[in-house]
Amino acid sequence: MAGTDEDAVAAADEALYVLTAVLLTPAKFPSVLGDDYPEACSALGLAPLADGYGLVLGQDGDGARWTVVVDDVSLVAVAIASWDCGMEYDLSPDERSVVAALPGWPLAVAVAAPGVPAPHDPDPETADGPPLAPPDTSRWGPAQRRLGADEIALQWAMWREQIDDASFANADEAQASDGPAEAAQEEAKDEHAEQNGQEAGPGKHGGIQRVLAEARGYVEKPPPLGRVRSSFAPGDARTLRADGPGWSLVARTDDIAFVLLDAEPGEVLPVGRGPELPGLLEALEKMAVRPS
Questions:
Q1: What is the pLDDT of residues 91-143, one digit of tens each?
Q2: Where do the segments described as Disordered lie (predicted)?
Q3: 147 and 85, same structural domain?
């Protein structure tokens, strides 16, 4: 929950009752919108500026949903930090910082402003384009997969304590291939074996092989901005997040990794350290985008 219901910001020449706000930057963006920063910006029709944006979600006096995009990222970051600490903060960006006022909300918001009609899309005549709407997360797919990775990163200790290190393959066993092509071939072999009632190769999982191969490829050829992000973790460790076509990876630089795949609904696949994973995580950490 962010801000007070009375917070307001001038946008599109009309008062906006602020409900919440989020950052849209290379290092921190709503991952439900895309695998990387440019993709998340594209979902809102925005250019991927290097400094990013702040997104202010609220309702106008008629109750219509609006997303106000501002370029004063620091102001929005301070507001979010204050709200997270349980403090009030009047988020009122200067009108000169407003980049756009977009109809609708790109994310689900569970609260509403008091004293105005229930949240609804603006009248098409007052909106410049179709209203934004949250991605469909009712079925397993890219959006739900990324939200799952968000949850693992947020609740790492809870997920980690469920894993017996002896119960899954080490990273060196899962990395039998040298690249995406070989990984895809191995995945196809495993799927064929499973379809015919046979067991896949011991310690091998084609999907994990492909993810690790593509992650290694990121080290050699940098991916779109925000595909690999680094954030705080206890001690000297960092939490790493990497995404790609059909997959998400969450890891601690001093521990294991978890992989989620579009092709395996609801499954969370652990990857042990072995001799290979530490080096990969170290290389990804060096190239990852960090919050400023």
A1: 888 888 899 999 999 999 999 999 999 999 998 877 778 999 999 988 999 99
A2: 115-143, 172-244
A3: no
